[in-house]
Amino acid sequence: MIDRREVIRMARLARLELSEMEIDQYQKDLTSFLTSGKKLQQVDVSRVEGTSHAVSVAHELRKDEVGKSLPQEAVLLGGPQVQDGFFRVPRIVEAQE
Amino acid sequence: MTSYDTVIGLEIHVALLTQSKFLCSCSASFGAPPNSQCCPICLGLPGALPLINEKAVEYATKAGLALNCQINHFSRFDRKNYFYPDLPKAYQITQDAFPLCTKGFLEYYVDDRLVQTEITRIHLEEEAGKLIHSGASIVDSEYSLVDYNRAGIPLIEIVTAPDIHHPRQARLFLEQLRLLMSYIGVSDTKMEEGSLRCDANISLKPNGSSVLGTKVEIKNLNSFRALERALEYEEMRQSQVLYRGGTIRQESRTWDDRAGKTMSMRSKGDAPDYRIFPEPDVPPLYLDPVWVELIRATIPELPLERLRRLEGQYGLSRYEATFLVNYPDFGELFFALVSQHFGYKSIVNFLMGDYARLAREKGHLNPKRIAGLLKIVDEGVISQTQGKGVLDDLFSSDLSAREIVEEKGLEVVGDPGRLRPIAREVLAANRELVSRFQNGETKLFGFFVGQVMRVTQGKADPGVVNELLRDELGK
Description:
The complex is a heterodimer.
Chain A: H1 4-13, H2 20-41, E1 61-62, H3 72-76, E2 82-83, E3 86-90, E4 93-96
Antiparallel strand pairs in A: 2-3
Chain B: E1 4-15, E2 52-53, H1 54-66, E3 70-71, E4 74-75, E5 78-81, E6 91-94, E7 101-110, E8 113-126, E9 130-133, E10 143-147, E11 154-160, H2 167-184, E12 196-206, E13 216-221, H3 224-243, E14 251-256, E15 261-267, E16 277-278, E17 285-286, H4 289-296, H5 303-312, H6 318-326, H7 328-338, H8 344-352, H9 354-362, H10 367-378, H11 384-396, H12 401-408, H13 416-429, H14 431-438, H15 445-455, H16 462-473
Parallel strand pairs in B: 13-14
Antiparallel strand pairs in B: 1-11, 1-12, 3-7, 4-17, 5-6, 5-16, 7-8, 8-11, 9-10, 12-13, 14-15
């Protein structure tokens, strides 16, 4: 069983607010994921090259050409606070000497 | 008492001068209304599929080659996860484990000593958005405004080894790196617009020790001067902490240019945990070696090569050559004028003199018009001093130097037939002085020359005037 504090930390990193019940549930689920992962780790892959992608795509590059962007109103639609065409966000860091 | 050595490493972000962004086709231009150059890809909306801009890879490779790096045939993109308001996707697509370029170096002068700074790596990544803080700096801002036009512009991050030894060297390195980037044309390198940015890592270690001390990262360095000042401040702060027996805390500090000091930045969130993993939306990059060679062929003469050529082939001093290298527009003018067979030194003296001042105010003159002026001074049609006046006029009119001289009637008068009557008049008007001269007051000669020059408004050829006066006075 993984540590309950580990679940809370992961939720915080992902900016998720979990109820006590959800924390219990994730603790079980994540433990089961990790158990499956442990099983996979028993397979000898020392002779297999690492894969970062399921499909191998070679050299798919785009020409440097400007296309259409979204209108400003559409971009700002998702912002909880907007000011003069900008997104407005609360205080970012605290200062100390 | 222990003395300490300073160890500095730099991380430089250079925005690449592409038309469109790194992973989408939004415009990468500067100065548009906020949030008007964004799309589902650079905003990280669900379902968007990024595609790499070929030009960005080309420019990053070019930068790597110019910095003597190994260009890796295989490189890979990674997802770096963190929450920060300038990052719309909550992750940045970057290269972590397998960067595009590794193991290079930059050679540059620190005073008269040629030094090398190792480049550990160069990787491609996407730019974040721009934050405008409500207060004077990030630490005293109640809120900030975000513009995502910049988010997704292609960047390269150049990381040096920690082998820079003092704040001034860091500044010289950055100046040379900036110059190199502008020579190869991959960036407009404007620090004030943020297309060249630098973070600095600095630590102190006991003199001679091989173990590095705890490093501090300094952010918000918006000019070469800020970089040098911030490092000087931090060098002093850290040494004071160490002399008092304290320890340095590993942290990020922000430079406050007005206050002239660094301040600790304590994030409201947790210590960073980026949970980096291979980027699933962008496949790895396999560079065709033939393409790399084609890119290598586009690299022009680099600043250090040009410096050596100007000193070696043209015999210029370090000072003169450095001027022409650091101001490539003046360098180009020099080469344009050299091809028209003027003396190298006289061209460089001309460019570095009044011309530099006027050109900075009003923009450069066409090399042909400059050549016209140098020619008539060379031929003695006008004097050096008159040349300065003509230069002023070249900047304010469309006439050629010769036309200006004609219009103003500036030619040097060297015709004895025209000058002799003037010399006689001058002597006739000053009979008393003439007799004093003839009685041995030879220094009066200069006075007579001056009088002739005055009457001719400085146009008389001084050589001819001397000769005529001697002749007349000897009669």
